Amino acid sequence: MNNTVADKKIAVLIDAENISEKYIKHIVDELANYGTPTYKRIYGDWTNPQLTKWKASLLDFSIQPIQQYSYTTGKSASDSAMIIDAMDILYSGKVDGFCLVSSDSDFTKLAARLREAGMLVIGMGEKKTPTPFIRACERFLYLEVLLPEPIAPKVVSVKENAVGKTETKTEAKGITTDKKKIASIIRDIIDDMDGDDGWAYLADVGNILSKREPDFDARNYGFRKFSDLVLSMKSIEVNKVKPEGKNVTQIYVRIKK
To answer: What is the pTM of this model?
Structure first.
């Protein structure tokens, strides 16, 4: 397999009956961070009027539609076609990884099988995606956070201040608010890997976090970068170091005593 991001070849397989066309540009843009999409296929019953909105996107992004008739009401016939194609592509030996775009748990076993074969497996789906599918992927991204439109802030509390004026506390943009849970996981990782002085390299912490929590993304919590999320945590101390002669800043973290 290739080691550089630019050289990684990614097969993109999309479940059209489970994913909205509004995400496609952001899916393609996000994948540029992981490699180059080669196979780009989308599965569904294209005689179904509900998939009409997808048709313009297929031309714009050079995606090959795969027709699969729905033989049974309430069942997605495209799932099996997508799984069979994924295995054919795997055995061709022409890709380094797969991006499975669906919120359907039916692809859990497929993701696990591809990872057993040494493939990078990126999952993309909406927040409703079942946990087993998320955990089967090496990396999972929620489609909602890829959209550029701002998410309306959620009101956490409304109270009256000392002078009788109403104050409203809101949460940052994101699709989850369980910051305490992720902060606890980050502290555990730092505690496991810190040196004699208690400091741990933030990049290494981020790598381990992604392996433990495949769906982790700082954008889920309203932050653009992982470092921004960590800097916001009062229980973690941050030390920025700029090595002599290098135009980079290294960030180290430790748990505050």
So the answer is: 0.78
